[in-house]
Amino acid sequence: MIMHVVTFTWRPDASEDQIRALTKELATLPSKIPALRSYHFGPDLRLRDGNADFAVAAVVDDADGVRGYLEHPAHVELVKNFVQPIVAGRNAVQMAIAD
To answer: What is the Cα–Cα distance from 36 to 70, expressed in whole angstroms?
Structure first.
């Protein structure tokens, strides 16, 4: 299995309403994207200085699942409409995890 993790840093002008709207839309993806086995997201807890503002962790079966998630029209649309308007920085990693 593969875990795809992405962290975001928001632009200074990103509003709480925009972040709530993104969170609401993220919650719809598991029902739309069959490749997702597990899906978690949310704001940083601010336990350490220097962390990103928000993270998403998606678990899929394999590399095809990563592509199926990232290229799915619902994901592409969400990124375009809800992430791009507020993102200042993004980092991602895909790592193997035990079944």
So the answer is: 10
Q: How would you label 51-61 residue by residue, b for 16+ Cβ within 10 Å and e otherwise?
A: ebbbbbebbbe
CA trace torsion 90, 91, 94, 99 (10° rounding): -80
Tens digits of residue pLDDT in 61-97:
999 999 999 999 999 999 999 999 999 999 999 999 9
SS3 sequence, the chain? CEEEEEEEEECCCCCHHHHHHHHHHHCCHHHHCCCCCEEEEEECCCCCCCCCCEEEEEEECCHHHHHHHHCCHHHHHHHHHHHCCCEEEEEEEEEECCC
* Full domain range(s) for residue 43: 2-96
**CATH assignment at residue 80:** 3.30.70.100
| pTM for the predicted model, two decimal places | 0.94
